[in-house]
Amino acid sequence: MDTKRIGLLVGCMMVLAGCAGSGGSIPVVDSGRPVSNEDMQSGAGIPTQTPAPAQQPEDSGVVVLVPDGEGGSSAIESYPLDSAPVSSQPSGSAPTSSGSGSGNLQDDEQLDGPVLALLTSARQQESSGDLNSASASLERALRIAPREPQVLYRLAQVRLDQGDAAQAEQLARRGLSYAAGRPALQAGLWGLVADARERQGDAEGAAQARQRAKVSL
Amino acid sequence: MGRKRGKRAARKVGFWRRWSGLLWKLALVGLVLLAALTIYLDAVVQEKFSGKRWAVPAKVFARPLELYAGQKLSRDDFITELSALGYRSVNSISQPGQMSAASGRVDVYTRGFQSFEGSEPAQRISVRFNGQQVSGLSGSGDLVMARLEPLMIGGIYPAHNEDRILVRLDQAPAYLVEALVAVEDREYFQHFGVSPKGIARAAYVNLVAGGVVQGGSTLTQQLVKNFYLNSDRSLIRKGTEAIMAVLLELHYSKEEILEAYLNEVFLGQDGRRAVHGFGLASQYYFAQPLHELELHQVALLVGMVKGPSLYNPRRQPERVKKRRDLVIQMLEEQGVITSEQAQAAIERPLDVTVRGSMADTSYPAFMDLIKRQLREDYKDEDLTSEGLRIFTSFDPLLQLKAEKAVETAFKRLGERAGSEMEAAMVVTGAQTGEVLALVGGRNPRFSGFNRALDAARPIGSLVKPAVFLTALEQPQRYSLITPVDDSPITLPAERGKTWSPQNYSRESHGLVPLHEALSRSYNQATVRLGVDIGVDKVLNTVERMGVRHRWPAYPAMLLGSGAMTPLQVTDMYQTLASGGFNTPLRAIRHVLTADGEQLRRYPFEIEQRFDSATIYLMQEGLSRVMAEGTGRSAYNQIPSSIRLAGKTGTTNDLRDSWFAGFSDDLLAVSWLGRDDNGQTRLTGATGALQVWSAFMAQAHPRSLSEVPPEGIVYAWVDRLTGEGSDPSCPDTVQAPFREGYQPLPGPGCRPLIDTEPVKEGAGRVMDVIRGWLQ
């Protein structure tokens, strides 16, 4: 528990430092596009205007899903959402985009306690090479939040690692059907569709998906 | 005296000389034979004891109940689940298997279990409730979520139906070993397999009593008898038994033998299933794991060893109480327990559950489904002997509600139901495609014809969504408000006949919006629509929805003369409920070996068959069935704030009554009809919908999502004409359309604000545009 908290704190500090250093955006390898913290926040489905109770940051760690170029999943950051810098982009454009996305969200789409906990354990199981357990944890998360595209995104990634590209594509597409108004996630999901199609030998389809990934952003 | 003896001896010498040689030889032969037998028996003893000792049937479990803030779960349902799991009510929880319920809060000490994705610890948690929801969860540390161990709902038994749950000696509760030794074999820890003292005592007792009242068998001998030998009572068998008992003791420790005994002993008969071992007996009689048993429960089980049917606590409670108290007294006499402990234990009731909660017969319909799925992947032998643990999606709480709904509906129907009427119901997770509950007949305990899986009946109007979905897939031609013609139509049928479908009301309605034709289930409009887009296309849509059929492309298929089972209908509607993604229905989540190793997963698999936007329109249409169409009586039982989607189905001459519908989280299909296909005099709305509504009212479904997917726009339309309109006009509603196919907005009807300056501005803009055009 303590190490986890420390980890979160360190992660938080690294994000803060990273944002401060690189002008507020984390460079992400996929298509060489930068994904901002703003986009991540809208991706997390939590309105930016949430008041920030900075005194309890350890409770609000958020797994942010950012695809990397290999279709892998290493580029995931954990940070306490509420204490994350909201100022990484000039405010103005971001709240409207995230507002339109999260404003319509249903309760089950908020990424909160149990789903977050399961995504975290799936991550741990995955990094120890136990893809079956990771998959089971994600399916458990999906039963709790069946419309949460982030869960579908992660499950699609695991399926890809398990060598089931066809299911990876289907799961990513299902994620897309629930990701209206969340451009960063849409881009990530299209990226996954592209990877999955590539694995299935569908170069043309992959190219189309990559195009959509760019448009989504 | 010496001489006398000497003489006699001398006389006898000749005799002895003659015979002793022979006797010696005979003895030698006997010894050799005995040695050979011993060697043979030794091999038998070791072979069976060292390998896999028992064939353990696969155990089937329900889903583990998840607990987290926001979970849909009422306090009462939670207590129902805990009780089924054998949790005991106490004032203050102190060990696993206990609960303490207050109003709005339940404290529970969970038992923990090994699941596919890791182990769930035993822990104290406090669950707070707010109506139908868990409002909070607390425990040690930052407790975000927890799970109860899954309820065992059945097993896969081999032909001889011997069932057991293996336990280790260290899992035995306090006093079990002491009581067993005290009652069955006091010298157990001293003797070498057979007990001359015990035999002597038994012989004496039997002599005094003038019959066999006490056996001289040691625990070891009892084990040998049950484990290796048949139960005839010959002297030779007794001899063999004794030799084997000694051999067993020679090779194995007292503890190992005792552990085997705990697992072997026969402790009851549950229908065709034989209950073996204390592990299973504990579950069977107390619904608790063995190690949780208290003194009075332990004494009861030990007392039963003497004669499980004679001392069946469910049939002979008084006799069993006497026997149990006797065991307790013996423990007291031997100083194992104090007299206070003994007195306290004697004052306790038997505490036996009403019936075996995990009996094979509890959920026959669901178990039937599980067995069919398992037999596709496993050999019978593996299922009945390897002790596999099968984790399913079964939800006992929803099952209870489904069964009650059937019962309630039959009560309400009263006379109209008659004795011939049967029922079936399937409940699945609307998004996951997991089977959560299954009712195979009016009597859910009866395992026979599983109608949910095997009763293929014409589906009537349940097929109509396929017709309308096919139409909506052509947005350039059809939207929800496209007028369709509900007027008489005559089509050629086979062998020169003609077919003129009628509406249920025998009236035609002329031009009606497409959504109304669906929500009111107009037959003539549906047939015209289906013929327009092509019967073959509609039938192909049914296949894409997930049901393989070999229906001929006759127009009559548009009104559902094709047959499906309730499970197939569920598959078909699942695709509508989950946004156009077909999910093969699943009931098994994963399989673990007896040691807890991952054996097989049945992963969540989906395939997108329809565009999400089109499905969204379809869901809108089906929600109008509930709001204003043939399904609206559901809202007599369900709050109108819950958005639901569904469809009634009625077949010719009112033979089958169907309803299929879903919320955001639950999909349920119900059917009423007769096995002889006779008339029920029920429509889908008066029959199956009543079952469905009764179920949903108790299941507290989550309202259907109204968040449109990409590719859907809302436009203002006139409610009556369906033409594009403006929010300022009367009778104007917003309706969803496929993007790019929405009607153009109509002119406004009255100024909402002082619009002069705006109009002026607009005029200027129009001038500019005109300028461009010219």
Strand-helix topology:
The complex is a heterodimer of chains A (217) and B (774).
Chain A: H1 2-21, E1 25-27, E2 34-36, H2 37-43, E3 61-64, E4 77-80, H3 93-103, H4 113-127, H5 131-144, H6 149-161, H7 165-177, H8 183-199, H9 203-216
Antiparallel strand pairs in A: 1-2, 3-4
Chain B: H1 2-50, E1 58-61, E2 66-68, H2 75-84, E3 88-89, E4 98-102, E5 105-109, E6 113-115, E7 118-120, E8 124-130, E9 133-139, E10 145-147, E11 152-156, E12 162-164, H3 176-184, H4 196-209, H5 219-228, H6 235-251, H7 254-264, E13 266-270, E14 273-276, H8 277-286, H9 295-304, H10 317-333, H11 339-347, H12 364-377, H13 380-385, E15 389-392, H14 396-413, E16 421-429, E17 435-439, H15 451-454, E18 457-458, H16 464-472, E19 483-486, E20 491-492, E21 498-499, E22 510-513, H17 514-519, H18 523-533, H19 535-544, E23 563-564, H20 566-577, E24 581-582, E25 588-592, E26 598-601, E27 607-608, H21 612-628, E28 645-650, E29 657-662, E30 666-674, H22 688-699, E31 712-718, E32 732-738, H23 756-773
Parallel strand pairs in B: 1-15, 3-4, 12-14
Antiparallel strand pairs in B: 1-11, 2-10, 4-5, 5-8, 6-7, 8-9, 13-14, 15-25, 16-17, 16-30, 18-23, 19-22, 20-21, 24-27, 25-26, 28-29, 29-30, 31-32
Could you provide a short overview of the structure?
The complex is a heterodimer of chains A (about 220) and B (about 775). Chain A is about 55% helix and about 5% strand. Chain A is mostly helical.
Can you put this structure into words, describing what you see?
- The complex is a heterodimer of chains A (217) and B (774).
- Chain A has 217 residues and is mainly alpha-helical.
- Chain A has a single domain, classed as Serine Threonine Protein Phosphatase 5, Tetratricopeptide repeat.
- Chain A has helices at 2-21, 37-43, 93-103, 113-127, 131-144, 149-161, 165-177, 183-199, 203-216; strands spanning 25-27, 34-36, 61-64, 77-80.
- In chain A, strands 1-2 form a two-stranded antiparallel sheet.
- The model of chain B is unreliable at 356-360 (pLDDT under 50).
- The A-B interface holds A 1, 59, 104-108, 112-114, 116-118, 121, 125, 132-137, 139-140, 142-144, 146-147, 155, 167, 170-171, 173-174, 176-178, 180 and B 66, 68-71, 115-118, 141-142, 144-145, 429, 431-432, 434, 579-581, 589-590, 598, 601, 603-608, 612, 664-665, 702, 705, 707-710.
